[in-house]
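Ticket #4471: structure export looks truncated?
Reporter: QA, pipeline team
Priority: medium

Steps to reproduce: submit the single chain below to the structure queue and open the exported record.
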Amino acid sequence: MVYVHVGWLVVGEVEIAVVGCGFWGRQHVRVLSSMENVVVKAVSDIDLDRARLVADEYGIQEVYGDSLRLLRDPSIDAVTICTPTTTHWKIAEEVVGSGRHVLVEKPICDTVEQARLLIAGAEEAGVILMPGHIERFNPGLQRVKGLLDKGLLGEVVLLSARRVGRWPDRVGDVGVVKDSAIHDLDLARYLLSEEPVSIYARAGSLVHRFEDFAEIVVSFPGVKTVFIESNWLTPRKIRRLTITGMEALVNLDFLSQEVILEKADRVTKIDGGWIEPLRLELEHFVDCVVRGLNPDVSGADGLRALELAESALKSSSLGKVVLL
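Actual output as written to the record:
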């Protein structure tokens, strides 16, 4: 990493490698390659031809079929991991063990036990570990968070999230709870600034190997309840959030980033412009690497979201409420 001092600001050129060149890996390479203070030094994928295609498209010199070989390059500062969930822990463990900072796509690991070991390893190595909970960086979501923090909704009664659509081909090793509903499980904690007390879920598989639909009810202290609908069955892609408070109601469309605030006497559209959440997420990760900051989304956040996802699956299996 090369540092340049411009007044009080420290600008760093970060050399990054991307592991996994499927849908999300390609998006990581696209965004990172367009950032002024980033050099995408290498890509890797078990499908070497796929990695070469991405490397050729973005002018990347180093191409590997094995992430371990990639880590032999001492110039690499950080790695983003965009591989199937069941491989996250093994690869991320290698990355933090080599002393590199890492962003790993959600869920942080396949199991809670793996996530705990990974967090401990990152702490011991003194490196940044950031799970890729991209919706935290959605500008519309941040506007909603601002309304909540200002108390404009009054006491919150209900948070309802709908995240539905057709099965994404990129997912083959986890179900809809760990891939999709986990976003809203994480956002519920973030938006309400509290920890849930219980969870009840019904989930099942109509078409796919893993569960492809889930309805999850999460109870928070007081009267606050979170309802999450998630599936891979609905023809139209929908990503929406509604928060009901005693003073107002707010609706968010994650895709358009449109925020609508409804009060007794008026309805207000809160504008702010559309910005790609992945760009904001990766810019934040790079900024943390350059400046030595703790990321806004921590390894502990990734662990907690995974714990809630596993608790939802447990509740569905047992057919009863799980206390948290």
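Status: closed, not a bug. The export was complete when the record was re-opened. Leaving a note from the reviewer for reference: The chain has two domains: 2-132, 135-278+307-323.
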